[in-house]
Design brief:
alpha/beta; six-stranded mixed beta sheet; 17 helices; 497 residues; 25% strand
Length: 497
């Protein structure tokens, strides 16, 4: 019998927000159903209801004609449902094999974990995925990309009938994406129901059979993938035709003097890196995942120790010993993993925006709460952050709104940012919000801020940057100007031996 998953009139509200409103659609076995919409459209809320992490206020889920209700994620897993979220659900101090088999650790007759069997079964799964990791590797020491693949391996091991993936490819390399898509096609051929959430248009058209579009918690339309195109899909998502995203951007053409200079920088991960950044310039960094782009920025920001080399800011030597030193000197970093490294998820928008300037908000021994509120409210208004109040917890915001809050933090009226480092600033956000972020980046440059823009989406780097530095294996493999940069030239440098 063909598998069938149906959502009937699903509604869910949170304080001040109607996350889902009367949403109904179906997903069939043997097909990939893409779930699309802007950040805040309700996609993640819907997946959390499917997984038992949330309960709907109204409506129900039906599987093969039988109404289902899951009181917890464990109940959903036991009903053959696996949901892979953007936020990784791993125990970083445990090994790969312990994470993959956490709910089935293969105890022997004496009650001890059968580690040889666990290693063998994990290695078999690793071989399917073709990853250069070992069953005994500690998860917290692996790259973000490999951690994401471990999440996917957990679902693969369970052999669930329904598999939902929320932005699964965001941290993956092209090779890893190819492996994942091959696996999805295999699961589809076995009649599995696949729900696929992504903001990457090319992926959706490559892997999906059906597309469901949500906006502001409501079902807008459904498409057969072969019967629509990117322009129609974007219009359905954002409610308007946004045209050529890059052609409409207003650029800064007035570059100033050198604001940041890096000379022969060496750390545990990078080797002899040198470059300069001018005021008002957007300097792109391209390269494959693991090329060393993030590691360069962490060293500049004082987060990783420098073995040798020099950093000059505003004509003065400035090798920072800590992120606080860098922030106090005017360097800001929006990290690649915003949830783990850039945000305090359990605190409010207001707290997250004011955290780097708390010392400036003090009145004697007390915090000037009115000034703090004004600061946060200004950022919410300036960046159109969707929230009913600045007291809303950061974990309750969509990925795009979280990213806007980080930008609001570093460009508030109380910050004197000279260099803004943006590491994968559009990861996991929708096409409409991406266009907003691109213009924000160029607006920062127009204010005389030197911007470093890192992205694994090459089309972004090519269209946003004034100049592009390409890295490979911890070294700079080349530099190209905006006028001479092409995808072929940058990829050639990125894979240069």
């Amino acid at each position: 019998m063909q598998q069938l998953l149906e959502f009937f009139n699903i509604s869910k509200a949170f304080p001040g927000v109607q996350a889902l409103n009367n949403v109904s659609f179906r997903a069939d076995g043997g097909r990939v159903c893409a779930l699309m919409g802007e950040n805040g459209a309700g996609k993640s809320t819907l997946l959390k209801i499917l997984s038992g992490d949330l309960q709907p206020d109204e409506g129900h889920i039906s599987i093969n004609g039988e109404v289902k209700s899951f009181a917890s994620p464990d109940k959903a897993i036991k009903s053959s449902i696996s949901v892979i979220y953007q936020e990784r659900q791993l125990i970083s101090a445990m090994s790969v094999m312990e994470n993959i088999f956490l709910d089935d650790l293969h105890e022997n007759k004496f009650g001890f974990i059968n580690k040889p069997m666990l290693r063998q079964k994990t290695q078999e799964i690793i071989d399917v995925f073709g990853l250069p990791i070992k069953p005994t590797d500690v998860v917290g020491r692996l790259s973000v990309a490999h951690q994401q693949m471990i999440e996917i391996m957990k679902a693969y091991r369970r052999d669930s009938d329904i598999i939902a993936l929320d932005e699964p490819t965001a941290p993956l390399t092209a090779g890893e994406i190819t492996v994942l898509f091959d696996l999805i096609r295999q699961l589809k051929a076995r009649g599995k129901i696949i729900i696929y959430v992504s903001h990457r248009m090319a992926e959706v058209f490559q892997i999906s059979d059906d597309i469901v579009v949500l906006k502001d918690g409501q079902l807008i339309t459904t498409f057969k993938t072969t019967e629509t195109d990117e322009k129609s899909l974007v219009k359905a998502m954002v409610g308007r035709d946004i045209g050529d995203t890059y052609a409409n951007l207003k650029r800064n053409d007035k570059l100033g003097d050198v604001i940041l200079e890096v000379k022969n920088l060496v750390t545990e991960y990078i080797h002899d890196v040198s470059f300069s950044l001018r005021r008002g310039e957007v300097l792109g960094f391209a390269g494959l995942i693991g090329a060393g782009r993030t590691e360069v920025m962490r060293a500049i920001f004082g987060a990783d120790p420098i073995i040798s080399g020099e950093i000059w800011l505003d004509g003065k030597a400035a090798n920072f010993k800590s992120p606080k030193n860098a922030i106090d000197s005017g360097i800001a970093l929006c990290p690649e993993d915003r949830k783990e490294q850039g945000l305090i998820l359990g605190r409010s928008i207001k707290d997250n925006i004011s955290v780097p300037v708390l010392s400036k908000l003090r009145k004697w021994l007390f915090l000037d709460v009115k000034s703090e509120e004004r600061l946060a409210a200004s950022a919410v208004k300036k960046y159109a952050i969707k929230t009913p109040t600045t007291e809303k917890l950061m974990l309750e915001l969509s990925g795009g709104n979280q990213q806007k809050a980080i930008l609001g933090r570093w460009t508030s009226e109380m910050m004197a940012t000279k260099v803004l480092i943006l590491d994968e600033p559009t990861k996991g956000i929708d096409v409409g919000t991406k266009a907003e972020v691109y213009q924000m980046v160029l607006d920062f440059a127009s204010l005389g801020i030197g911007v470093i823009f890192i992205s694994s989406e090459l089309i972004e780097v090519l269209n946003i940057s004034d100049r592009i530095i390409v890295m490979h294996n911890g070294r700079i493999s080349g530099e190209v100007s905006r006028d001479e940069a092409t995808e072929e030239r940058v990829l050639e440098l990125a894979m240069k031996d």
